[in-house]
Amino acid sequence: MKWRLSIYGRTLVSISLAILIIFSVLAVVYTSISSATSKQLRLDDLERNANELADLTARHMQEGGRIFITAEVSGYWTYAARSTGAIVCIIDGNNHIVYDTGLPAYLVEQLEYDVAERYFVLPNELTNRGRSNYSSAAEQTGLNEYLDDSSSWLVASSPLPSYTRVYTGEVLLLRHLRPDSFTALLQENSIPISFFISFLLSLIIIVLLSRRITEPISTLALTADKVYKGDLSARVKLGKEEQPLTLDDGDEDLARHEDDLTLLVRTFNTLIAKFEEQERQQSDFLSSISHDLRTPITSIHGFIEAMRDGTIPPERYPHYLDIVKSETERLRQLIDTLFDQTLDGNINALNRSVFNINNLIIRIVNSLEPLLKGKNLTLELQLSDGEGTGYNVIADEDAITRVLSNILTNAIRFAPQSGLVLVRTSLENRLVHVAVEDNGEGISDEDIPYIFDRFYKAERSRSTEGSGLGLYIARTLIKRHGQLIKAYHSDLGGAGIMFTLERP
User: Fold this and answer.
1) Of 159, 227, 365, 430, most Cβ neighbours within 10 A?
2) What three-state secondary structure class fits 285?
3) How many CB atoms lie within 10 A of CB 312?
4) How far is Cα 503 from Cα 355, in angstroms, rounded to an integer?
5) 437-447 in b/e burial notation, b at 16+ Cβ within 10 A?
6) E strands, 397-440, where?
7) How far is CA 200 from CA 16, 205, 337, 424, in A?
C-alpha cells in the first residue's frame, strides 16, 4: 500500500520546517551578536578589575619591589576572583607567581620552579613587560601554547604601578568561558534555549491551528472520494454537531460572516445533493421509460400472435395494423426521448439555413392533428400580423422542428378537453418571437424557474404522461442557437412558452 501524506501532515511539516529554519537563523545571528557583545563586556570587566587589583597590590609593595601579602590584600584578590569568575595571579618583578587563586595543574607543570624562593616562575614571553594594560583572547597572546583550548580563555593584564620604567610585576587575570555549572550553562545558552522553547510553543500552536484549518479540507477530500466511488449520500460535516451544511439551510446573516472554506463546504454539499436528486430522477425516469416501452411491445407482440394463430380474423387486420402502427410510432417517440438524454454529451454542429418559420409551424400543426382531435382542441394561429406570409429565420430547421413539436405537444397535453391552444409569431427588435399558449391550469410561480430543468415536472403534472425532458430539450436547442426561451403566465389563463429566432 502506497503511503500518502495528508494535507494536514503536509501543512504541519511545511510550516514547522519554515519556522524551524527561521528560528535557527535568528538563533545563530542573535547568539553570535550576543556572544561577541558578551565577550567584549567580559574583556572590559577583566581589564577594569586587573587595574583595580594592580593599584591595590602596589600599596602593599615594599621598597625593594617585594610584594607583602597580608590577609587583607589576599582577601581582595579572592573576592575579585569570585566576582569575576577569573583566576587571579600576582606576579612580582622577578617573574615569580607570588599568589594565585588556582591555576590549572597542566599549566603549572609547564612552568619552572624557583627552589630558593619557592615560587613558580612565569616565562618572560608571558609577562607584560610592555607596561600597558590589555585584555584579549588567550589565543592571541603567548599563553596560546600553554593553555588547553586557548580559544575559550580570556586574559587581562595590568602592570603594577612604578615611578620608573622598570618592570615591577603585574596582575594577571585568566577567565575560562565555558560554564562550570548547570545554571551557568543555562545563562550561557539563554538565547538558543529561548528560541528552542519558542519553537516548541509555536509547534504546539501550529498543530492546533493546522488541524482546525485542514480538517475540513481533509473531510472534503474523503467525501469527494466517496462520491467518486458512487456514494452520493456522503456529505461533508463540520462543527461539534457535525451538520451537513448546504447553501439552502444557511442563515444569510451568518453566511456573510463565514470563511471561504465553510462556503466551499456548503457549495460542495449542495452540488452532491443535486447530483443525488438528479440521479434519483434519472433512475425514476428510466424505470418509467422501461415500463412505457414494455407496454407497446407487449401490445404489438399480442396483436401479431393473435393474427398468426387466427384469433383475429383477416377482415380485422387493417384495424389492428393501424393500432400496431400507432404503437410503433409510440415506441419511436420513446426511443427518441432516450436518445435525447445524451444531448449534452453528444452535440452535433448546427446545420443553419434560411427558412420560413410560419410554414414550419403550419407543417408541425398538421402533423399533430390526431392529438388535437383526440382532445377536441381548437388551435388558433396568429402568424405575421394574421396575413400568413411569415418571417424568414436563420436556424437549424430540424432542431427548431423538435423545439416546436415539444412545446406544442406539451401545450396539447395540459390544455383542458375542448380547450384552446394559441400559436403566434411577431417581430420585435429584429428578432422573431414565437409563442405557444394554452388555457389550461398554467404554471405556478414556484415552478416557473425550474420548468426547463431536466426531468422536472410541476406538482400538478406528476400524474400525467411525459418524461420531463421536452422543455429541457427545447431550451438546450434554443440556447445552442444563442437565443432566448422563457415561460410565463398566458392571458388565456394557462401557460405560455416563448422563444426567439434570428433573422437572416
Assistant:
1) 159
2) helix
3) 17
4) 10
5) bbbbebbeeeb
6) 420-428, 431-438
7) 10, 9, 66, 78
224 sits in which H/E element:
helix 190-228
Q: What is the DSSP letter of 493?
A: S
Residues 6+ apart with CB under 8 A from 267: 247
Compute the CA torsion angle 20, 22, 26, 29 (nearest 10 deg). 100
Give the three cell numbers for residue 428: 420585435
Q: Measured between alpha carbons, how far is 273 from 22 in angstroms, rounded to an integer?
A: 46
Per-residue pLDDT at 200: 84
Query: 42 and 137 in contact (C-beta within 8 Å)?
Result: no
The pTM assigned to this predicted structure is 0.42
The SS3 assignment for 478 reads helix
Cα separations in angstroms, 103 against 72, 75, 147, 258: 21, 17, 10, 72
Residue 345: pLDDT band with limits 50, 70, 90: very low
CB of 76 within 8 A of CB of 182?
no
- In the chain, the domains with their CATH numbers are 7-192 (3.30.450.20), 215-280 (no CATH), 284-340 (1.10.287.130), 352-502 (3.30.565.10)
Residue 423 has pLDDT above 90, yes or no: yes
Instruction: Output the DSSP codes for 148-212.
Output: TTGGGEEEEEEEPP-SSSS--EEEEEEEE-S-SSHHHHHHHTHHHHHHHHHHHHHHHHHHHHHHH
The answer to whether 91 and 98 have CB atoms below 8 angstroms apart is yes
Which phi and psi angles does 229 have, rounded to 5°?
-85, 0
pLDDT digits (tens, 9 = 90+) for 309-340: 888 888 888 888 887 887 787 677 777 766 66
Q: What distance in Å separates the CA atoms of residue 377 and residue 493, rounded to the nearest whole number?
A: 15
Sheet with 96-100, edge to edge strand ranges = 112-114, 119-121, 96-100, 87-92, 169-176, 153-159, 134-137
Task: Indicate whether 463 pLDDT > 50.
Answer: no
- Cα-flanking dihedrals φ and ψ of residue 421, to 5°? -125, 130
Widest CA span of the chain, in angstroms? 163
